[in-house]
Amino acid sequence: MSAQPSPIGEPVLELKALRKSFGDTEIIRGVDLAVLGGQRHALIGPNGAGKSTLFNLISGHYAPTSGDILLNGAPIAGFAPHIINRLGLSRSFQITNVFPRMSVAENLRISIMGRRGHRLTLFRSIRSLSAVNDEVDEYLQNLRLTRRRDSLAGDLAYSEQRILEMGMALATDPAVLILDEPTAGMSRDETTYIVDLIRRVTEGRTLLVVEHDMSVVFTLCDHVSVLVYGEIIASGEPSAVRADRKVQEAYLGEEVH
């Protein structure tokens, strides 16, 4: 059963005293974090801060050494990724993760069918799933990929693949969407386009995003948390985080901008 979004302002994703060690090396060191319903929340930090590890803990790719992860108040720490997805959390990856030999429409259809509980069989034609196909068309339009409907996903431009992957994550209808560096490797024009698209398609949803481009963070997000050496050193509105001396020192003594 999919999780229902929490009311705006209530915590929908919470990390409590979360720790992760690999052998004797502790990467995540007692992280406490709350992401509120309807919030666009950015997680930033220098290279090696532990951001990818934290995302992997949240999405079930790693199990924590200790601590709790709650989704809509229910514990999910250590659950398998597909179970967490069914409970209402979906993510995109830093490295594009689409089915390259399938069409754009087919990639979206897989996500929608999975959410609806449909399975492909020899006795059911895809064309008979009219509600699914209608939803595919709606996502194509919202993602501005209608003209690429029948193109192989592997033939798309890099930025289009990133859009498709985000669409596949959205098509599971998550309570929380987490995006890992959605604008990485893009030109300034492509970044502007993607940011506008993310803002539009995530309207009313809860978003947690890792992003290195600070202009993206401060344009898109209404709350920012800073992770340094596995610990949250600041969390708040973008303007307050920008002015925080600890944050400035973490970025080699320069103000985040």
From TrEMBL:
| Keyword ATP-binding attached | yes
What's any one GO cellular component for it?
plasma membrane
The record's SUPFAM superfamilies line, in alphabetical order, gives: P-loop containing nucleoside triphosphate hydrolases
Is-annotated flag, keyword Secreted?
no
Mind listing the GO molecular function terms for this protein? ATP binding; ATP hydrolysis activity
Task: Cite the entry's keywords alphabetically.
Answer: ATP-binding, Nucleotide-binding, Transport
Q: Domain of life of the organism in this record?
A: Bacteria
* Classification via InterPro entries: AAA+_ATPase, ABC_AA/LPS_Transport, ABC_transporter-like_ATP-bd, BCA_ABC_TP_C, P-loop_NTPase
Which part of the chain is the ABC transporter domain? 13-254
Pfam families from the xrefs? Answer: ABC_tran, BCA_ABC_TP_C
Protein's UniProt name: ABC transporter domain-containing protein
Recorded source organism is Reyranella soli
Q: What is the lineage of its organism?
A: Bacteria, Pseudomonadati, Pseudomonadota, Alphaproteobacteria, Hyphomicrobiales
